[in-house]
Design a protein that fits this description.
This protein is mainly alpha-helical. The chain has two domains: about 10-215, Alpha-lytic protease prodomain-like (Up-down Bundle), CATH 1.20.1510; about 225-305, Alpha-Beta Plaits, CATH 3.30.70. Helix content is about 70%, strand content about 10%. The protein has nine helices and three strands; from the N terminus they run αααααααββαβα. It has a three-stranded mixed beta sheet.
């Protein structure tokens, strides 16, 4: 197994982000659960449950990144990069599970008479929203920089926590204002309705992340922002007359490329080998996230090339 010191910088940044997320979520979960219980707010309790789920999601991301950075071996000749996408899928499923759990409990609380939430719960929610939004943006930036689906999923989980906090803030505010200025009773369940709305938002985020991680697991071709530069770099190499059958798949935070390169039929085997090496170098220079390139050399056939 690759040691921490040997891990590439993107993986180290992702692991640090997951570790920081775990520590913050543990602290926030305790604060929100205790405040929710003392302040009679199920929306805040639901928010605390979401933070507990965040702890496990960060653990999953951490573990996925540790496995994904292992070097290829005889059992896994293409490496362990899919562990990163698998971790993202697990996080997405956890989001869906949390959304369902919050929705069920919200409905139960709506149907059960209870106290008006305490005003001090609003101050706690404001602090939580600020912390989670900052954390979400930081983790999302890291995920975007290193190209990690799992880290981006973790950022979505942090954002979902901020959303549930915002919904709880609105619900509790409505309950407090309504109980004071609009009849006194009947507003107790406002924060429960807010938690129910938040569960729908969380479920939507979970579905979105599950689709992204499933695409990686099924080797879906990446977008033109990756494929375009790869093709352009290959075709810009002197001696390359055409390219075809370009296939790119994502493996963890890197990409694996295969393509056919057409060159002059008179090239010797040695010259074709040198040209294929130049193509590999050009592609990896243009897109540093490319971990490997497999080039199949062919004699130039204009009609075939025009039909690619």
């Amino acid at each position: 197994m690759t040691s921490h010191r040997e891990r590439p910088e993107p993986a180290r940044r992702g692991i640090r982000a997951a570790q920081i997320g775990m520590l913050l979520n543990a602290a926030l979960a305790i604060i929100k659960l205790l405040t929710g219980l003392v302040g009679h707010s199920y929306a805040l309790i639901a928010d605390g449950i979401e933070s507990v789920a965040d702890i496990f999601s960060s653990l999953v991301v951490w573990g996925g990144l540790r496995i994904a950075t292992r070097s290829a071996d005889s059992e896994y000749p293409f490496g362990y990069g899919k562990a990163e996408a698998l971790a993202a899928a697990i996080v997405a499923l956890m989001l869906l599970g949390a959304a369902i759990g919050i929705a069920v409990e919200s409905v139960r609380e709506i149907m059960t008479p209870h106290h008006i939430p305490a005003p001090f719960t609003l101050a706690v929610l404001v602090g939580v929203m600020i912390v989670k939004e900052i954390l979400s943006r930081r983790v999302r930036a890291i995920g975007r920089d290193v190209g990690s689906t799992a880290i981006r999923a973790d950022a979505v989980h942090h954002r979902a926590d901020a959303i549930t906090s915002a919904a709880a803030f609105v619900g509790i505010s409505v309950a407090l204002v309504g109980s004071r200025y609009a009849g006194g009773t009947g507003w107790e369940s406002a924060d429960d309705w807010a938690a129910l709305v938040a569960s729908l938002v969380i479920a939507w985020n979970g579905v979105s992340m599950l689709r992204a991680s499933t695409s990686d697991l099924m080797d879906r071709m990446p977008g033109p922002e990756i494929v375009g530069p790869i093709r352009q770099a290959a075709e810009a190499v002197p001696g390359v007359l055409a390219t075809e059958h370009l296939a790119v798949r994502r493996t963890g935070m890197t990409y694996r490329v295969t393509l056919h390169v057409q060159a002059a039929p008179a090239l010797s085997l040695h010259e074709a080998h040198i040209l294929s090496g130049m193509v590999k170098g050009a592609i990896r220079a243009a897109v540093p996230a490319v971990a490997s390139v497999l080039v199949h050399m062919e004699p130039h056939e204009p009609m075939v090339a025009s039909e690619r």
